[in-house]
Amino acid sequence: MPEADLDAAAPRTMKRPGRFVAELVRRGVWSTAADGWTIHDYLDYQPSKARVEEDRKKNAERQRRFAYRKKTRDQQKGQAPNAVSNALSTPLEDKPNAVADGVTNATPSRPAPKGDNSLRSSSPSPRGDPDFEAFYAAYPKRVARKAAEAAWAKAMKDGADAAMVIAGAKRYAGERHDENPRYTKNPATWLNQGCWLDEPQVRQRERTVTENDERIAQFLRGSPVARGPEPPRRELPPGEAP
Asked: What ranges does the record list as Basic and acidic residues composition bias (predicted)?
């Protein structure tokens, strides 16, 4: 760094570049020379002019080779037979099948509008597991289908028998017939709890009818009928007639 160029090289915000250079010399980053200062290890961080010119030559040569290879590939592609040009060179009247060499004689059809559903399938999309469909149809309460499908898949993965689960759903539907649907379990809950393994439950209405029939039979046989506990009698205050 020549001493004459110090003011030009120093930033404009540096008011005293001489003090800054003196600090650099004190720390050993710069060293004094005959006409200025020498920056240590400058070429390790700043390439020399010869290196810059050499890198420019290498880049130019690399770009030249790339352009040459690209031009060669383009020329090779141009020499290959062109299917489109061959097809267009043949008269259309010489193509009885209406399709030859990639060219079609038929008038192109108009594209179907976006709102036209005539090309779409009218049949609904097929369901998944047919065993699950049979279970879901037999179950007395059809709610939360996605949760039921997930519970069914988990039960099948755990080794449950599909036929046994379907039979259990039919049995549960019979038990819940004419009962309050509020207390009927959701299908996902019923599957997650493994309720198809439960023992058959006697319906509340059937249990009441059976108990009444037994009481009638005991009455006809002359046997004492079991009665429930009598309600407590209300005691009257003294002097009040019953």
From this structure: 50-64, 206-216, 230-242
Task: Label residues 51-83 b or e (16+ Cβ within 10 Å = b).
Answer: eeeeeeeeeeeeeeeeeeeeeeeeeeeeeeeee
Distance of CA 90 to the CA centre of its chain: 51
Q: Are 173 and 135 in contact (CB under 8 A)?
A: no
Are 224 and 218 within 8 A, CB to CB?
Answer: yes
d(CA 69, CA 82): 22
The residues near 138 (Cβ < 8 Å, ≥ 6 apart) are 166, 169, 170, 173
Residue showing tokens 């879901």: 136
Per-residue pLDDT, 134: 92
- Kindly state the DSSP code that residue 91 receives in the 8-state scheme: -
- Paired with 36 in beta bridges are 2
Contacts of 134 (CB under 8 A, 6+ apart): 166
Gyration radius from the chain CA atoms:
49
Q: How many helices (H) and strands (E) does the chain have?
A: 10, 4
Model confidence over 85-116: pLDDT tens digits?
454 555 555 555 544 444 444 455 555 555 54
CA distances from 16 to 9, 30, 38, 116 (A): 12, 17, 19, 81
Count of all residues that appear for the chain in the document? 242
Q: In whole angstroms, give the CA distance from residue 66 to residue 69.
A: 5
Residue 224: C-alpha distances to residues 208, 210, 213 (Å):
19, 17, 14
What global pTM score does this model have? Answer: 0.34
Q: pLDDT > 70: what percent of the chain?
A: 64
